[in-house]
Amino acid sequence: MIMSKHGAALRGAAIGDVDHVALTVPDHDAAVAFCLAGLGAEVQYTRAQGQSVAGAEEAVDCAIRAVSRLRIGTGLMLEIYELSGIHREIAADFGDWEISRFTILTEDPDSAVARFRAAGGRILTGALAPRGQVIRHSHPGRAQPRYGRCPWGSIVEFTERPSACGAAHLSAERDLRGA
Prior knowledge:
There is one protein chain. The protein contains three helices and eight strands, in the order βαββββαβββα. By secondary structure, it is an alpha/beta fold. The chain has a four-stranded mixed sheet, with helices on one face. β7 and β8 form a beta hairpin. α1 packs antiparallel against α2. It is globular.
């Protein structure tokens, strides 16, 4: 049996833990500054480059201008890329077929949202404002998730960290489903 670095059994021979999610942004430096101020991120590394995008199986007509890897809390990391040759005017939204948002677990959602807003993020209002969907939380005692849009358009969800009792319940549910 293959075990992850966290001691969990891996289902499948070559699949491990998620390490990072890459975001392409229109302004690398502004996005990194926002993540530091608005999400409490820490820079792991920054590189300015002028090379082609490596590993692409299809021809990609762009080059990396700058990339930074950021850690937020103890979870996965974000890689922030600025690419030349990208001609997109708007960011992905909830209905797009790609990663539509990332979630920040927090002990204090109100403070996290206030920090995000103070750094220049926009809080989305309504039941899941972009599409008008209603999401009902199924975990009594936890705050409803809140959503914000980063200055470049990416969406962040702020969710209250489950209590130890709630986390054990969720883990048991996953085990029963075989997930």
